[in-house]
Design goal:
By secondary structure, this protein is α/β, with parallel strands linked by helices. It is about 30% helix and about 20% strand. The protein has a nine-stranded mixed sheet with strand order 3-2-1-4-9-11-12-13-14, with helices on both faces. A three-stranded mixed sheet has the order 6-5-10. It has a two-stranded antiparallel ribbon with strand order 7-8. The longest helix has 19 residues.
Length: about 260
């Protein structure tokens, strides 16, 4: 299992559980695992919703099968994406997202990198829900598998999500630690053992990290809850790269299909 995946998913689960939100919009296997774990960590009534439909993932979701693998006979809200986005606008939902780029003002990009206006060097899926996520007062966590100059930039190449309102809570989780966006920029809430080095290496994305505590291991209770929610380790795919990610996805997918059969 990936130590980074365990640390960040456990941290996200704990944050969700203690945030007081009633609805949490999931966007990936790792965020599903964190949301399910949050129910065990103090938010038993937390409803999970994706960007396109409501869902439930209890007791163990089939995370490689897309949304159809998340539906169960258990209780689940049934709505459409407009309800989810309306709740986002009212500050009633939390969401964790993984933009391709995040900048010093909290703007996000999932449309294209490099090149020129209208002709990116690398075309990406598109804005999706990022404009709504960033515009409202709801809590948003940015969950990134790496802490480097490709993901963290002075200014995003394409603005999908505008700079968030000054009163909204925005936190970033990376292999370097947990960071919060404030009026003066990004500040470290805690760092990993290699966090200070990773932060200092990305000069275009300054973070005030003086005095931040170092977290060496994941919260034991939170990690146990994550492991129960995702026993096959689908969360690790997001923290792997290239061939390794593809191999992990195929392996976990087979385990899930075998379990269904």
């Amino acid at each position: 299992m990936s130590a980074t995946a365990d640390l960040l998913c456990a941290a996200l689960a704990r944050e969700i559980a203690e945030s007081g939100i009633r609805v949490y919009a999931v966007t990936s296997p790792a965020t599903v695992a964190a949301g399910l774990a949050a129910r065990e960590l103090g938010a038993p009534g937390l409803a999970l919703a994706s960007g396109f439909t409501a869902l439930d993932g209890s007791p163990v979701p089939q995370l490689t099968l897309g949304e159809r693998g998340l539906f169960t006979a258990g209780p689940a809200l049934r709505d459409d994406p407009f309800d989810t986005f309306a709740l986002l606008a009212r500050g009633r939902v939390g969401v964790a997202v993984a933009p391709a780029q995040l900048d010093v003002r909290g703007r996000t990009n999932l449309s294209g990198v490099g090149g020129e206006a209208g002709r990116p060097k690398v075309a990406l899926p598109g804005a999706r829900g990022l404009p709504d996520n960033n515009a409202g007062p709801s809590r948003v966590w940015y969950l990134l598998p790496a802490h480097g100059p490709r993901q963290l930039v002075a200014a995003v190449d394409v603005v999908c999500g505008a700079a968030p309102p000054p009163t909204s809570l925005r936190r970033l989780l990376t292999p370097a630690g947990c960071f919060e966006l404030g009026h003066g920029g990004w500040t470290a809430r805690w760092l990993t053992a290699s966090g200070a080095e990773l932060v200092s290496a990305v000069e275009a994305f300054p973070i005030v990290a003086d005095g931040a505590p170092v977290v060496d291991e994941p919260d034991a209770d939170a990690l146990a809850a994550v492991q129960r929610a995702d026993p096959r380790g689908a969360r690790t795919v997001e923290f792997a790269g290239g061939p390794e990610a593809a191999e992990l996805f195929a392996k976990i997918g087979k385990l899930e299909r075998d379990a269904v059969d």
